[in-house]
């Protein structure tokens, strides 16, 4: 009976978010409380579990997500992203402009929150498309695919970071695996797939125009790339140290400086000087940018905390052990199962973050019995959460309106690109699982 209750509550969560348009955070709270009561938990225990789930989830994520959002905002405000894009186009040349934009999207997508990244790169895409007289969708979709992949696969983005927390995965290792899977995924979903889209060439949308900063005001290329990728560099060093000398990671000083929260704070501190004060930005303007960045991720943090509440209800009610027994009887690989659950919720709800965190809420309490690498589970669920974006996803409409497309053209380009990213992500996870 408890399994029926959980499936009913998840279905109701989908209905509340997709049909009733209830805020996702409130939906998670309502469903968490309802699930606890239907599972006959004492009301006081339900309230305590919700509060504990929210606190435990935010405790490990707040610094990483907020510092990452602030770093991304400064990368955008300072002109570092524009500098990287311009330099990459010059480096790759006109014939390889797709590859230039894809590489740019990957670099600036790591620190940038997806919606901020989208708004930033669209004017860059259209300026390049206008300059070289190329279809905007053809050259721009690989860049948008880069943002999508970093959003779904790579910490310190909110969703994969939250998934890593849920599954007790190592953020540095998850990032390393994510990069390995992301590169072939991007090639297939970007330059290879867009060969079929050259005939989609609508007039430029007025929404896409934005005045770039003058070249004289842009930071240097090295500083732009180094600062944008500093979290990756530091987390990569962390993973390398752990691989070479596992005992070193247990030394208190090393454990402190390699903690992901400290890594993000160090990266943000460096960026404040290299892209902020070093570019003659006033401290007040830098802090305003950081304040705006918090607004950008506030709802993501709330949704994440709501997912933590649902997870705690499943644990404290004891229903997670029943789900574990049921899943153990299924003849399906746990990584495929995680991808499948996230995919179904994504198609129903539209939000990649909600899809990933809901799937994690079901699977996280079972990780001890599933016997899979938690780092790969993060990427598998993250890939599933990107599956077939359509009319219930705000990303679908953003892409449609900015690129001035019909719904059919948007499905043919954006929706299929997201599907390719999702499926290739799962394939990459299964290949790594077989190798490791």
From TrEMBL:
Protein name as annotated: Gluconate:H+ symporter
Family the entry assigns: Belongs to the GntP permease family.
Location of this chain's protein in the cell: Cell membrane
Organism expressing this protein natively: Dawidia soli
Record PANTHER family: GNT FAMILY GLUCONATE TRANSPORTER, HIGH-AFFINITY GLUCONATE TRANSPORTER
Recorded GO CC terms: plasma membrane
Topology of the protein relative to the lipid bilayer: Multi-pass membrane protein
GO MF entries: gluconate transmembrane transporter activity
InterPro entries: Glcn_transporter
